[in-house]
Design goal:
15% strand; 5-stranded mixed sheet; lipid biosynthesis; 332 residues; alpha/beta; 2 domains; phosphate:acyl-[acyl carrier protein] acyltransferase activity; Isopropylmalate Dehydrogenase; Phosphate acyltransferase
Length: 332
């Protein structure tokens, strides 16, 4: 299996990408990785390995770059060349922790969509209290969507969760302001009807307050609402741990208490760390494209590679293609 990585994307590039790649090739004996980026900056972190190659380029995508212009204006950027390798069949999948909008644009124009999928969805797996996690899609690839897009998200998410995360007959929920069928916007009401007819285990509407309790294995929504939900969860977790830390550092008594429960608190923090689940998949493209978190360290990159490996191994793209084709034939 061959995976391409944008070594220059993310806050800790290229160190995190290089070290994460080394962890991955040590873990998978059949994995080959090509790091795209500035070889002079990559080499200090790279131990010689027969299954890690470097494709040298000094150009990279910046966070300030306009996503729609990257493919045309920065043809030799590490992110663009990485996606080009997937398009040309040189790599099975690709990963970047760089500019999210640029990766979505690059994936769409270089890798291309699955036939029958109208719009790809950006889809991270987020934590739940029982450690199982849930897939949320979309979280920003498409701010404006139609009901049949949400239905397609449900199908893609269900296939991924069942075949990669090993959850049989995953529960698919529709994010809404209430659980009652008649609630929500016209878009959500129409999507509800379509999901009821889709080849998924649709359990109805779910509310945002129940997401971390594991209300569903796959949660479908538009990119605007999904991004707000994602940032709210991330912000709440960071604020909560900051408040706990401040409380434990107040005086000597609380510091002693903190020392006693330190390992337990770390366990909770790890449980709520969504980077442990890998990156956000751009589902709907004709090959796996994974967006790792911008602040990813080497372990987060390793987890994103593991996720990508299992996506390719399970041939999720082909499974989505077959399901969408069969559904379209039934409707014809």
């Amino acid at each position: 299996m061959k995976i391409a990585i944008d070594a220059m994307g993310g806050d800790h590039a290229p160190e995190a990408a290089v070290k994460g790649a080394k962890m991955a090739v040590d873990h998978y004996e059949d994995l080959e990785i090509t790091l795209y980026g500035n070889e002079e900056l990559i080499q200090p972190y790279l131990e010689k390995h027969p299954r890690i190659k470097v494709y040298h380029t000094t150009e990279k995508v910046e966070n300030t770059d306009e996503p729609a212009r990257v493919v045309r204006k920065k043809k030799n950027a590490s992110m663009v060349l990485m996606a080009e390798s997937v398009k040309n069949g040189e790599s099975d999948a690709c990963i970047s922790a760089g500019n999210t909008g640029a990766l979505m644009s690059t994936g769409l124009f270089k890798v291309g969509r699955i036939k029958g999928i109208d719009r790809p969805a950006l889809s991270p797996t987020l934590p739940t209290v029982d450690g199982t996690g849930f897939l949320l899609l979309d979280v920003g690839a498409n701010v404006e969507t139609k009901a049949h897009h949400l239905m397609q998200y449900g199908i893609m998410g269900s296939i991924y969760v069942e075949n990669v995360r090993g959850i049989k007959n995953p529960r698919v929920g529709l994010l809404n302001v209430g659980t009652e069928e008649q609630k929500g916007s016209e878009l959500v009401k129409e999507a509800f009807q379509l999901l009821q007819q889709a080849p998924v285990n649709f359990i109805g509407n779910v509310e945002a307050r129940d997401l971390l309790e594991g209300a569903a294995d796959v949660v479908v929504t538009d990119g605007f609402s999904g991004n707000i939900a994602l940032k709210s969860i991330e912000g709440t977790a960071l604020t909560m741990f900051s408040m706990i830390k401040d409380t434990f550092m107040k005086n000597m008594k609380t510091k002693v208490a903190a020392a006693m429960v330190k390992s337990d608190l770390k366990g909770i923090k790890d449980q709520l760390d969504y980077s442990e689940y890998g990156g956000a998949g751009l589902f709907g493209l004709s090959a796996p494209v994974i967006k790792a978190h911008g602040s990813s360290n080497d372990r987060a990159i390793f987890n994103a590679i593991k996720q990508t490996y299992h996506l390719v191994e399970a041939d999720v793209v082909t499974l989505i293609e077959k399901e969408v084709k069969a559904m379209n034939e039934r409707e014809a």
